[in-house]
Amino acid sequence: MTTIYADNAATTQMSRAAIDAMLPYLETIYGNPSSLHSVGQQAAGALLSARDRIAKCLNASPREIYFTSGGSEADNQAILSAARLGERKGKKHIISTAFEHHAVLHTLKKLEKEGFTVELLPVGPIGTVTAQQVKDAIREDTCLVSVMYANNEIGSILPISEIGAVCRAAGVLFHTDAVQAAGHLPIDVKAQNIDLLSLSAHKFHGPKGTGVLYARQDVFLTNLIEGGARVRRTSPPSWAWLRRSKTPARTSTRTRKGSALCATV
After folding, report:
1. Number of helical H runs and strand E runs in the chain
2. Taking the CA of residue 256 as centre, how many other CA atoms within 13 Å lie in the half-sphere pointing to its CB?
3. Which of 47, 98, 160, 162 has its Cα between 20 and 30 A from that of 174?
4. Which of 32, 28, 48 lies closest to 40 in space, CA to CA?
5. Mean pLDDT of all residues in the chain?
6. How far apart are CA 34 and CA 199, in angstroms?
7. Integer Cα distance of 89 and 133 in angstroms
8. What is the distance between the alpha carbons of residues 32 and 47, in angstroms, rounded to a whole number?
9. Is the pLDDT of residue 62 over 60?
């Protein structure tokens, strides 16, 4: 019996290109990218190249790209980081929508227990919220607006560029969960005034357990897990070595025609 899979909104099959791109780093280039020996530096080169490719797809800087275990971790870190930044300034009001992914809604519930005020905007009859709704909800103590790019249940597309413009004019951080939009809709973090953005590879034929958090360079992130070296640092030795090396980093990309997102593994 032939199986017809029609649930790509939940997860996708890994593409052959993604599998082939990963294999060298599972079999031969397996070093720790923080190590200074040649095996580690090969891995560091691949990591740097992957970060650079994803940054170009989003119109971001490589230093603004963080790899995560998936969209849920990226959502959690984005929201908690923005909340901590706002809290230091006495701002504890957060705006979101009533139909966000649970990774967003449950994180907001956690913050409510810590004294934050969360305002969930109602969704209209066509499954969206407007930039005007966001503008009307922003207060002097608003520290974050988090609105998904495309809804994972009904497929509605939200006016991210317009909402981003409202937030930028008000001086409020803007996060969008773009997990469902990646590969289908254009993403340009500068043109769309996005400060924080979440992605997950398994939604566009990449591996499960791999995600991306984009954070604008001046947005300081709060650690979710303590230990290990920090990603954002000045002139890492491994990067300096890579720039001097004549050995090209081995990476592979899959670009979907007409899409502003390139999936890099």
Report:
1. 7, 9
2. 18
3. 47
4. 32
5. 88
6. 24
7. 24
8. 10
9. yes
Q: Which residue has the higher pLDDT, 95 or 263?
A: 95
Contact call for residues 126 and 154 (beta carbons, < 8 A): no
Instruction: Report the C-alpha dihedral over residues 236, 241, 247, 253, rounded to 10 degrees.
Output: 10
* Single-letter amino acid, residue 159: P
What would the DSSP string read from start to end of 43-56? Answer: HHHHHHHHHHHHHH
What letter would DSSP give residue 15? P
Nearest residue to 174 (alpha-carbon basis) of 184, 159, 185 = 159
* Residue 249: per-residue pLDDT: 38
For tokens 């780093």, what's the residue? Answer: 25
| C-alpha to C-alpha distance for 196 and 82, rounded to whole angstroms | 9
Report residue 262: phi and psi, to 5°.
-105, 130
Report d(CA 261, CA 264) in Å as an integer.
9
* Residues 27, 253: Cα–Cα separation, whole Å: 19
Rounded to an integer, what distance in angstroms lies between the CA atom of residue 235 and that of residue 47?
A: 15
d(CA 219, CA 176): 14
Strand ranges, E, within 91-170: 93-97, 117-121, 142-146
Specify whether the CB–CB gap between 203 and 183 falls below 8 A.
yes
Q: How far apart are CA 246 and CA 202, in angstroms?
A: 33
Q: Provide CB contacts within 8 A for 65, sequence distance 6+.
A: 51, 54, 55, 58, 212, 213, 214
Asked which of 13-17, 185-189, 233-237 is least confident by mean pLDDT, the reply is 233-237
| First-to-last C-alpha distance (Å) of the chain | 33
Cβ(96)–Cβ(72) under 8 Å?
Answer: no
Q: Which pLDDT band, with edges at 50, 70 and 90, does 243 fall under?
A: very low
